[in-house]
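Could you join me in thinking about how sequence relates to backbone shape in a protein? We need material for that, and I hope you will provide a protein of your own picking. Once you have written the record down, we can walk along the chain together:

…
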Amino acid sequence: MKILGLFLVMVLASGAQAFERKVVSCQRAKIGLTTLIGPIGETTRYFHDGRVAVYTVDLLDPMCCSAGIAIVLPEVNGPTGGEMKCVAILGSFGVDVKNARSSFNPVSGLLIEVDTREYQGTKDSIPGKPIKVRVNIENSKVSLE
């Protein structure tokens, strides 16, 4: 029992590092309009001539690491050609979409970097590992870097 308790303390104390970031569909992550953080103008950024939208989302889990981003982009393989694709990346205590940085490479696509915060078991947090995500608009692919 002591070992289990020690393990839980270690996991909680380690903050977001204990949670693996991965790209998942918004549906799978249960990301919807109610998980968007407002005011939308301050927590949303548009990239690639407005074709890629990045939103701050939070599943409001009181423990930690429920914040992240949702990325909406055109789905090039959709049946009618007008569909949109939504993916999410969670695993942070907080994200700063407003100050996200981007760069574009014609071969690999759009790179977006979003600063994060890590949970420290109190009201305070510390800077975390940024979310670095590659968006390829030509094939609707999103991947972590």
